[in-house]
Amino acid sequence: MIRLKNEKEIEGIRKSCHLLADMFNEVLPEVQPGVSTKEIDDRCKQFMLDHGGRPAWYLEDFPGAICISINNEVIHGIPSKKRFIKDGDIVSIDVGIDLDGYISDSTHTVMVGNVKPSWKKLVEVTRECLTAGVAACTAGKRISDISNAVYNIAVKHNYGVVYDYCGHGVGLEVHEDPNIPNCPSYGPNPRIQAGMVLAIEPMINLGTADVLTADDDWTVLTADGKPSAHEEHTVAVFADHTEILTDLNYKA
């Protein structure tokens, strides 16, 4: 069931999203060679706690405050004291904050140091996919309009569009209806309505679209070992516009 949010609920989700944007603005510059993924996790967790929030992923029993995925890891990478970021890595940080029961969700892929040109292009195109998906998310259109906008850009570059995982409703829970595929789908295709709060999140692979799950039962990997990029925003749909709640350049 799709849960349409009222004005009060959207304001609560907006505050959570703005806090998440503030966290990213502080932490992203710290994603540097030699830093462990657990250090980034600890930094994000402390920021949330210091500002009255808590990691939303704890509601999903994930073993970390953030998901941090490197290179061929698509999503759900587990923070580790033994995993260190290296020059040339692309690092996706997927974070949700639970602030007074209101959930935010956003992802940014950081290019660390001297990234290969083909990998840099992958990240840049994934950002284009997110921009296109958000632009297609307006009241009166359908979820498939978002999916097609993301997919059409990615396939022009011969990238694999992950089909096993997708965007989703968000705000009062971490994962809500509807699902938002990043490629054409035969599943439900509801009309986009005012009051929807959605997490739009392209996951784009340099090679095959196929993925597999690592032995830790969480980390999702590209099946061919090539890199993947992931970008995500939480947006709120209004009758006459759509607001990017997790915009890093939001204006209060």
What is the gist of this entry?
The protein has helices spanning 7-27, 37-50, 117-135, 143-156; strands at 54-55, 67-70, 73-75, 90-95, 97-99, 102-103, 106-111, 160-161, 167-169, 176-180, 197-200, 203-205, 211-213, 220-222, 228-230, 233-237, 242-244.
Layout of helices and strands:
Layout: H1 7-27, H2 37-50, E1 54-55, E2 67-70, E3 73-75, E4 90-95, E5 97-99, E6 102-103, E7 106-111, H3 117-135, H4 143-156, E8 160-161, E9 167-169, E10 176-180, E11 197-200, E12 203-205, E13 211-213, E14 220-222, E15 228-230, E16 233-237, E17 242-244
Antiparallel strand pairs: 1-5, 2-4, 3-14, 4-7, 5-6, 8-12, 9-10, 9-11, 11-16, 12-15, 13-14, 16-17
Helix pairs in contact: 1-2, 3-4
How would you characterize the overall build of this protein?
With 252 residues, the protein is α+β, with helices and mostly antiparallel strands. Helices cover 27% and strands 24% of the residues. The chain has helices at 7-27, 37-50, 117-135, 143-156, and strands spanning 54-55, 67-70, 73-75, 90-95, 97-99, 102-103, 106-111, 160-161, 167-169, 176-180, 197-200, 203-205, 211-213, 220-222, 228-230, 233-237, 242-244. A five-stranded antiparallel sheet has the order 10-9-11-16-17. A three-stranded antiparallel sheet has the order 1-5-6. Strands 2-4-7 form a three-stranded antiparallel sheet, with helices on both faces. β13 (211-213) and β14 (220-222) form a beta hairpin. α1 (7-27) crosses α2. The chain is globular, with a radius of gyration of 17 Å. The model has no long low-confidence stretch (mean pLDDT 98).
